[in-house]
Design a protein that fits this description.
- The chain is an all-alpha fold and 99 residues long.
- It has one domain (5-91).
- 64% of the residues lie in helices and 0% in strands.
- The chain contains four helices and no strands.
- The chain has helices at residues 5-19, 24-43, 48-60, 77-91.
- The chain is globular, with a radius of gyration of 13 Å.
- The protein starts with a helix and ends in an 8-residue tail after the last helix.
């Protein structure tokens, strides 16, 4: 893996923190961070399930900023679902592109 796992985790943490606003640019940054996290772990040979578990563990970690309420998603579940969906799509994207 070219980027150190700690750096990837910090990048993902920062993107989740910023995504609380649900700004389009910030959401693109979050999706890219999720894709990069997924691609790196896939390259290391992790199964789809293992990557998704690692991602969910990271975003649910108590040291991670909580996904704050938003008028479109009061408890943050929709954002968590989006993050999981992006991870799965990225894992199975043969071109290695974040779609």
């Amino acid at each position: 893996m070219a980027i150190h796992p700690v750096e990837l985790e910090q990048k993902l943490r920062d993107a989740v923190r910023l995504a609380a606003s649900r700004d389009a640019e910030v959401m693109r940054a979050l999706r890219l961070a999720v894709c990069e996290f997924t691609f790196a772990h896939r390259s290391d040979g992790l199964t789809p399930e293992s990557v998704l578990i690692a991602l969910k563990k990271l975003i649910d970690d108590r040291t991670m900023p909580r996904i704050t309420p938003h008028e479109t998603d009061w408890n943050g579940e929709r954002l968590r679902e989006k993050i999981s969906t992006w991870c799965i799509k990225a894992y199975f994207n043969a071109e290695g592109a974040c779609i």
